[in-house]
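Case study.
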Amino acid sequence: MNNFVDVNDADNIEALIEHALLLKKSPYDFENLGKRKTIGLIFMNPSLRTRLSTQKAAINLGMNVMMMNFSGEGWALETEQGVIMNGDKPEHIKEAAAVVGSYCDIVAIRTFAGLKDKDDDYNELILRQFIRYCGKPIINMESATVHPLQSLTDLITIKENKEAKNPKILLTWAPHPKVLPQAVANSFAQWTLAAGYDLTIACPKGYELSTDFAKGAKVVHKPEEGYMDADFVYAKNWSSFVHYGKKLSEDKSWMVDAEKMKLTNNAKFMHCLPVRRNVVVEDSVIDSVNSLVIQQASNRVWAAQAVLSKLLENL
Amino acid sequence: MNNFVDVNDADNIEALIEHALLLKKSPYDFENLGKRKTIGLIFMNPSLRTRLSTQKAAINLGMNVMMMNFSGEGWALETEQGVIMNGDKPEHIKEAAAVVGSYCDIVAIRTFAGLKDKDDDYNELILRQFIRYCGKPIINMESATVHPLQSLTDLITIKENKEAKNPKILLTWAPHPKVLPQAVANSFAQWTLAAGYDLTIACPKGYELSTDFAKGAKVVHKPEEGYMDADFVYAKNWSSFVHYGKKLSEDKSWMVDAEKMKLTNNAKFMHCLPVRRNVVVEDSVIDSVNSLVIQQASNRVWAAQAVLSKLLENL
Amino acid sequence: MNNFVDVNDADNIEALIEHALLLKKSPYDFENLGKRKTIGLIFMNPSLRTRLSTQKAAINLGMNVMMMNFSGEGWALETEQGVIMNGDKPEHIKEAAAVVGSYCDIVAIRTFAGLKDKDDDYNELILRQFIRYCGKPIINMESATVHPLQSLTDLITIKENKEAKNPKILLTWAPHPKVLPQAVANSFAQWTLAAGYDLTIACPKGYELSTDFAKGAKVVHKPEEGYMDADFVYAKNWSSFVHYGKKLSEDKSWMVDAEKMKLTNNAKFMHCLPVRRNVVVEDSVIDSVNSLVIQQASNRVWAAQAVLSKLLENL
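After joint prediction, the assembly is written out as follows.
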């Protein structure tokens, strides 16, 4: 593995999951692999789970960790080419990426969608430039369109909890007060489909995901429709891809509640967190024994550690 | 020791002080105790001494340190139960605490009083929830009502400087431009009384501390009254407990000055810092040879290291 | 070396450069030198290169690193003596410096010019107080008037790239949308002159640097004038020293462009970064094979590591 930017960087998803589960059992088996190696964690957006779990994974492998918040500790980066930089952005991503790369052996970066220009976001304008100019292996800690560390974690958690060989998975849109990117949903669709799972996506009309990520999933447009016989219910809000970045619905009947969960095959509940309680999911569901949200979050360490160990082996 | 949340977690205050003083002499005697152990330092409020001294203490014990600022790097946490989370708080403390706990072996948290709802603050609403959901040993790095790491430091410093077996200690209220919590004052009263010292608290009427913390202290209401024969003068501002969170006085005669210090038994001056010079205390007092403020601050490392080593022994 | 505050702390510039180049070849030759030693990195202003490169240098020497942002994580510091602190600054630099010093073996600090009071800035009011009260060796990570780690890096980079024994160096002022300190320019002049190089400074009238730093340099006032036969062109904006902190020119003809670079002896282009593209320097120049900006930035690690190793040897 030379980068971990999207699902295509995982040659063998199943083997990566197995490696993560091995690390979960024996976190220090490779604690010298990262000796004298430094990872830079670059945040252009806030982070809790990703920040701490990636740091922990690096520590478990014996790496040095350097953190940089580009808001607060640093400054906004210019990403356009050829621009006259006389505005509020004091540094171009060309320099910033190359400089960070020169100090690190591996660089992990978080850079969310702007949700203003679909082409910029779906061409991964910032991430692609960072990769191009950084010169070091890159880990995507959530970009404009995908969140592969989260999706790998999700597959690890499904593997730990599935009873059927090929469980029925529902990815359901849910309401949210804010306008959010499609990254987690895109990525979850892409990875579960790549893993060969049976995926249904339920969302209001106009919220269909890009077929680049969701091709092969069944799509339904009524809140209750996908729950029947589901083994896993994965809730997430996202803004419209078609009407890019727009909020088309606040329909509360899309909230995951105990009533709809009764339609399932005693399904497990999943969410990447942070989650808006009683907006995205009812307390009674997220607080039930079937809720996997904390297990998912704690598995972030093993997903990151599996990815990091593969990158370190290739340095 | 399973948590270090308040004075009740210290089975034996004297032994803890002795252990801290031992570590001060030999900082690296237990430098492998924290190997492969990670402490998370969680800040919901700004910090200088607590941040650096706790980090240093953990390093001295061989621990890994992960820091998280919940403002800036993260986000505001919801602390109410059953609420519909459609406002400006994207995550509930239930999830945040459990997730942080899953990444760490010990979690230290700073969460100040809101000073709006006395019951919320004095029930330690946030800290108690964090303990409940985190699932790991918790260190209180100043909560709504107490600051036990500071008080342990204060007792260490008194031990190093006292001449009499049972010195006379004055805790005096002092003016301040801002409205501050009672935590440091509560905690200082509680720990000095638990240690069996002779404590007088001087404050304007209406600034009496809760008897939960200050029972057993003599209380006086004139600025000069408590200074007579004092061996230690500990200055601190706090807002009213009775008229909760209110500022009742800006009376400058409560500032600690050279004049009043002359009434003492050549008393040492103490303050937890940061301190407003020439508001809380006159330059001539804090800059005198009797000032212990830097020694107090530097002892924060040994207090934290003593507590951490006790928690690590019990993991 | 007991401090690294300005050029006078470098007993032997040539030897320091050689030591840095040795460390560049063998970064881990002294990886136990910093064992059980802690450096505090104190930022009163934002930083990217300085933050990461100094951290990396300390890690390479086996040191522990503690970071503190005094805006955000901490608070603003009072720097006036004898003031009544009832405003928005909750702590005096006297206490803050002493406390940080008590937790660290070496302290590195960044504190920019205020550009309001020339005397305060040129007396290094904040840095000098920090040194005075901190009690530990200090590294200047850019102060009001100088940026010695940058200048040492610049000399390392010139050493790596010069062909003539005594190359001709041009330091040229360039336009900028903001009002910037003179620190990088002062320091570059001071160090190149101390190293015995032939330095020309080109700037609009009114932008002459203080002779304390630039004495011995040739000064010219037309954009093209200094380029003739130059081996190195170092671009930088600064505000006026004479009309202190003022912006006197936005003349775009001072931008470094391909046309003016043609006048040189195939000169290398240098800048400390961050740089405003197409304001300070044209894309075609900074993107050319003659641009050294990334090499400069990456050499920051070796400059810092050379300085740190000298300070550690003296502890």
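Observations recorded in class. The radius of gyration of chain C is 19 Å. Chain C has two domains: 7-146+299-313, 148-296. We will return to this complex in the next lecture.
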